[in-house]
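User: I'm putting together a small comparison set for a docking exercise, and I want a reference complex before I start. The sequence is below, and the ligand is uridine-5'-diphosphate-glucuronic acid. Could you produce the 3D structure with the ligand included, as structure tokens?
Assistant: Of course. I'll restate your input first, then give the structure tokens for the complex.
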Amino acid sequence: MMRVSIIGTGYVGLVTGVCLAAKGVKVVCVDQDIDKVATIMGGKSPIYEEGLDALLLSTLDRTFHATSDFKQAILDTDLTIISVGTPFKDGKINLDYIKTAARQIGEALCEKNGYHVVVVKSTVVPGTTDDVVLPILEEASGKKAGRDFGVGMNPEFLREGNAIHDFMSPDRIVLGGMDQTSQEFMARIYNNFTGIDILRTNCRTAEMIKYTANALLATLISFSNEIGNLCGVLPNVDVQDVMSGVYLDHRLSPIMENGKRVFPSILSYLAAGCGFGGSCFPKDLSAIHAFGKQLGLSMDMVGAAINTNLKQPMEMLRLLKKHFYSLDGISVTVLGLAFKPGTDDIRESPAISILEMLIEERAVVTAFDPVAADSMKRIFNSSIAYVDTLEKAIDGSDAILLMTHWDIFDKLPVLVAKQIKIPVVVDGRRKLEPNKFECYEGIGRYSTSVCDR
Ligand code: UGA
């Protein structure tokens, strides 16, 4: 049985560890934070992810355990996955955690007999595994890469909220290795994943695949938002109708032999909205943008995807301001605070920019999110009123901004209809039906009138 140690029990590390353990690999997750280790060993995940607690409980003490004993974890295993944070700081990716992990692994390898493979899973700019991690490992261990140990890069493609599913039923497994032996070792941890496309390549290409995948998705969103904003000022044009026509291109929705069309899920990234957020897209785009610039490339497309996204919350404000002379004293409800539904993660959420702008304009802001309010309180505390039901959130409101779409917001037409004062509803996700509201504005949808309120 393959034995794997994973450095870092963050989102990716823990999901990877528990999922591999569920697939029969013997896993030990390592974290220097002893409280975190204790929580995990108590059967509780320190982060919220659908299905993770259950999977942790079913593998705990059987194929999975956590420890803060770094050295022992390396000595007891055949392969180590580095899964630590790679924040974007001071205009570039910060590799401090990666470097520290590599050094500690190298020091442990010093005492290890037998071959070992070190795999980077964190998202890192191309060249990091070969040019940063490998030399540190060699220096700290006094051993030779390719002879005494192997090095690889195995990017993750996990969506928050769907991470367990994405890991257990992956669309691809990318194995970047410095040599064939490293790739072989990495492939062994995925022995129980059958029928999955496995791409074997070098580390630099694996690193580049990860950035390219995220940059493409984010660029599609920004492209759709730019088109949406244009549609929004064209009489009688709605971006949703425009995109419906575009989706019918057989290259986007192939027609099968039985004559039926398939509408792939990629089309959801070709829809206009109030912008993307999260811990991946914004950070990864900034990192690859800065990386390309460093190499003398202008990186115009990625730069435009970033800038369009930064400006997109302004479009929500533009639609809102069509209806008010000033926002001073106007009661505005913000619905959905996380960067997407199904999570309490507010990192880089477009709702943050909206809240900042509303506060700046002296609006009286009420916010509601089924799970993310507590996270947002850490940024905006007394300047915003948080409520715990949708009903309370919209009661007496002059305007409602929908920033993420939770299913519960489908109740809005009924709830809004009961209001004495008719609020303007600004739909940032285009999930609501315009004709169900007396006063509706949506990203990418032209409307002339200022509602009669
Ligand atoms: C993203 C990628 O989808 C994963 O494939 C990748 O592995 C992951 O980043 C990562 O690098 O770790 P995630 O950030 O969880 O995953 O979320 P997505 O569901 O892709 O959403 C990202 C942002 O795009 C959100 O703000 C969301 O609201 C926005 N989005 C997403 C849209 O505007 N439209 C969509 O159709 C999907």
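Residues 156-160, 214, 217, 221, 268-269, 273, 276-278, 280-281, 339-340 surround uridine-5'-diphosphate-glucuronic acid (CB under 6 Å). The two ends are 69 Å apart (CA to CA).
User: Thanks, that's exactly what I needed.
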